[in-house]
Design a protein that fits this description.
globular; Trna Endonuclease, Chain: A, domain 1; MutS, DNA mismatch repair protein, domain I; alpha+beta; 6-stranded mixed β-sheet
């Protein structure tokens, strides 16, 4: 993966600082998700909103798990075997063919200081909270669709994405990933003539 240096904002510096405070912890890979019952997982959730808490565990999407793995905040295990990053990428690539594009957009947004969560219930890839806003305090500002620059999008698909954003009272954000791993974001809005 090619990494692009992103200018750090006040919010992204705050998130980095909180992330540095957390000691690396164990995460189990179970099917298509990663989960942890470690105390550090809950601390990380409370400070930086990584994962979702369900009962006594914190569940991570695969993009969140890779992000934390790259930041050396988690160690992923499958059963009792440590999963290396290359092996993890192979596994998730089989589960999600569009994973690289999705992850590139996710990483870019997190590095800019935004909180990014999955948005399957909205029919989108991600929901994005404005800087300084935590899930539960307010609603997400955008729904975000990652797209590789070489892929095509029909007008019907584009209109469907716009309708989903409109019906959920969110703004539509398209993150286009190029061959170098750079992301360009386009915000789309309805206009009345």
């Amino acid at each position: 993966m090619i990494r692009k240096k992103i200018k750090q904002t006040k919010e992204s510096k705050k998130q980095e600082k909180e992330l540095r405070k957390v000691k690396p912890f164990k995460v189990l890979l179970v099917g298509g998700r990663a989960e942890s019952s470690e105390r550090e997982a809950r601390q990380l959730y409370e400070k930086s909103n990584f994962g979702e808490i369900t009962e006594d565990k914190v569940h991570y999407s695969l993009v969140e798990a890779l992000y934390l793995l790259e930041k050396k905040k988690i160690k992923i295990y499958e059963r009792k075997k440590l999963v290396k990053i290359d092996s993890f990428l192979t596994k998730v690539g089989e589960l999600e063919p569009n994973f690289h594009t999705r992850y590139t957009v996710f990483r870019d947004m997190r590095n800019r200081g935004y909180i990014v969560k999955t948005a399957l219930k909205f029919g989108a890839d991600f929901r994005v909270y404005d800087k300084g806003v935590k899930p539960g305090e307010d609603h997400a500002k955008w729904i975000l669709y990652p797209v590789y620059e070489g892929s095509t999008l029909t007008w019907h698909e584009f209109a469907a994405k716009n309708r989903v954003a409109h019906s959920t009272r969110k703004r539509l954000l398209i993150g286009i990933v190029d061959d170098e791993g750079s992301v360009t974001f386009y915000e789309i809005a309805w206009k009345r003539p």
